[in-house]
Amino acid sequence: MYEGIIVLILLGFTAALLRVPILGSFLALFHTLVHENGHVAAAKWTGGKAHSVSLFYNQSGLALTSHQGKGGAVLTIAAGYVFASAVSVVYIYALMMQWYTPMMIVLCILLLYNIMFLVKNIVGILWLGSVFLLIGVLYANQAYEASVYVLYIIGSTLLVQAFLSSLYVWKMSRFHAAASGDAALLEKATGIPAVFWGFIFFGQGAVCFTAGTWMLVREGLPFL
């Protein structure tokens, strides 16, 4: 019971931080990066190409991809929310297993790959550079405990933002379908209403958020 309350406070605090100017955008871009890389991965896996990724100050992003056939296009468009939610659960599992060093290595590889091959816009490059700087400072000062806190902040951000973004796209698909992003693109590609895709995105987001929260409650937070 106590652990559950602490976890809910942590996730609620994370949701509040995401609304703080500047800091909220900085944190939310971790989710945006994963979301856009989901599009990139799906495009490549289906025989298409990834041209660039842009990250924006308003917490949004854009992946420019090309596809081979309608099926590849549909899978690429659908991949962003699903990939981000799945990664948030895998990330939380890795935290519970205390795989801190491998996680930091994977994070650095992801950042390096994006800054070298994908991200082209100034905001995205500055954000990636600032994250690299933060990791470098932690490494230079051998701040292991602080690194663990950073990993947990990123993890809670990925989990919360994946859920909130899926909730947002479902809301937009119901009331402003044309502005519902990936759901609107899927409606255009498949003819199936955006509200259907919005509901699918929200459903998988809710399931993954529940799974991640359950793991946090069951295993507890090692630094408490």
By DSSP, the count of extended strands is 2
In the sheet with the most strands, the strands line up as: 1-2
Number of H/I helices: 8
Mean pLDDT: 95
Helix content: over 70%
Q: N- to C-terminal separation?
A: 14 Å
How does the major sheet shape up? 2 strands, antiparallel
The poorly predicted ranges are: none
Return the string of H and E elements.
HHEEHHHHHH
Proportion of residues in extended strands: 5-15%
Our Rg estimate from Cα atoms comes to: 17 Å
The coarse silhouette is: globular
Give me the secondary-structure category: mainly alpha
Taken together, the total number of domains comes to: 1
Protein name: Peptidase M50B-like protein
Pfam family, one: Peptidase_M50B
Transmembrane segments: 6-30, 72-93, 99-118, 150-170, 191-217
InterPro entries: Peptidase_M50B-like (IPR049500)
